[in-house]
Amino acid sequence: MIANYGYEDGSGFYYITIDGDVCAECEHHGCVTACPQGVYAIELDDYDDLVAVVTENARKRLRELCSPCKGQNGSGGIQRILPCTSACPRGALRHSW
Ligand code: SF4
Ligand code: SF4
Q1: CA of 16 to the centre of ligand 2 (A)
Q2: What span, in angstroms and rounded, lies between the C-alpha atoms of 42 and 18?
Q3: Cα–Cα distance measured from residue 2 to residue 20, given in angstroms and rounded to the nearest whole number
Q4: What is the CA angle 41-21-92, rounded to 5?
Q5: Quick one: which ligand is closest to 64's CA?
Q6: Closest ligand relative to 5 C-alpha
Q7: Residue 27 above 80 pLDDT?
Q8: Which of 29, 51, 80, 94 has the most beta carbons within 10 angstroms of its beta carbon?
Q9: CATH architecture of structural domain 2-95
Q10: 79 pLDDT above the threshold of 90
Q11: Does residue 65 line the site of ligand 2, with CB under 6 A?
């Protein structure tokens, strides 16, 4: 299942999309340890699979939390290689900005 976490405001759309079907097959959960801001956690979903989620605290602060990884502007342009997406070689994670 695809899940979207985040928000939009006057400056843009800040969502992280996670493909839970991919997470269900993941053994190392590298996103959790790779993220310096603690954005991700692992939880059981409705199908009893362990999947990555964006923590409640992070959902409304994604632009701010991710700005050290993305650069000062933190929006627009070509997305940099991020610790979280690098740690997820099967591409379950996507950022909207
Ligand atoms: S987001 Fe990627 S690294 Fe994290 S649990 Fe899912 S598949 Fe694994
Ligand atoms: S961009 Fe950086 S702070 Fe944001 S979720 Fe990925 S690793 Fe964490």
Answers
A1: 10
A2: 12
A3: 6
A4: 60
A5: 2
A6: 2
A7: yes
A8: 51
A9: 2-Layer Sandwich (3.30)
A10: no
A11: yes
